[in-house]
Design brief:
Helix content is about 55%, strand content about 15%. The protein is α+β, with helices and mostly antiparallel strands and about 260 residues long.
Length: about 260
């Protein structure tokens, strides 16, 4: 029997990390039950074919696994894409970049951050007072170009007045989402995926479900201003927080900006 060594421990740690990241992404996307189902099937497959050496069951499960992997890739292509994007996110490898360059002052970074954070906060607070419904999506690591194409391209500087005009009730773009990427207002009137999570309260409308849907399908953050109550909600990583104050919103948006 081969003794348990460092390579074996490293092998277990890597597999555990991959399973953890998959679990986190599936949980955020609302497909956690499928994750547990697939995990249970793999455990049964390993136990039957490797431990008890059941040839007939092992052969059948081998065939199912070969076909099942293709089906899983088709069904969960968005989750797989998000997993690879998060794995390659430069923030996860920031410590390697810091070895090859000096740490820069964060003053200019803070100034750049406030250039786009505060106009969004001001616009949301103004729309909250007037009970103007709004849905704003802020791109992170995963590109949102496919969603931008469903709306009208703007490509404008982030401006609170312009945001309010887009979501004005008589505006043709007020029903869709505004997508912000690379410190620019990229597109408005965009169509987003709707979350079918059964745990969402019935009081939340289509805007809230769309905000939660885009946060489950991608790593983007979404802000919702309720047309009925004027409350501000924030969806990120598959979770939605309601009734935010201006300070709360500013704090959450500031944390989206990656550290240099």
């Amino acid at each position: 029997m081969t003794p348990f060594g460092i390579k074996d421990a490293l092998d277990i740690i890597i597999v555990a990390m991959l399973l953890y990241y998959l679990y986190k992404i599936m949980k955020e996307s609302g497909t956690i039950n499928i994750f547990f189902g697939v995990l249970a099937f793999i455990i049964v497959w390993v136990v039957a074919s490797e431990i008890f050496e059941m040839r007939l069951i092992g052969t059948i499960l081998d065939k199912v696994m070969s076909i099942g992997l293709i089906i899983l890739v088709i069904l969960f292509q968005d989750q797989i894409k998000r997993f690879l994007v998060e794995l390659g996110n430069h923030n996860r490898w920031k410590f390697l970049k810091n070895l090859f360059r000096h740490h820069r002052s964060g003053n200019s970074h803070d100034d750049d951050r406030r250039k786009w954070v505060m106009p969004i906060v001001y616009a949301c607070m103004s729309m909250s007072k007037s009970k103007t419904g709004a849905l704003i999506v802020i791109e992170q690591s995963m590109p949102l170009e496919n969603y931008e194409k469903t709306g009208d391209i703007i490509d404008a500087t982030i401006n609170s007045r312009l945001i309010e005009n887009i979501f004005f009730k008589n505006s043709p773009l007020h029903d869709g989402a505004l997508i912000i990427a690379h410190d620019r207002m990229k597109a408005a009137g965009c169509i987003l995926p709707v979350s079918h999570d059964t745990s969402i309260p019935r009081s939340m409308g289509l805007r809230h479900r769309s905000a939660l849907g885009i946060s489950q399908a991608t790593d983007a953050a979404a802000i919702v201003v309720s047309e009925e109550t004027g409350n501000i909600s924030y969806a990120y990583k598959g979770k939605i927080t309601t009734r935010l104050s201006s300070t709360d919103l500013e704090h959450r948006l500031s944390r989206l900006v990656p550290d240099e």
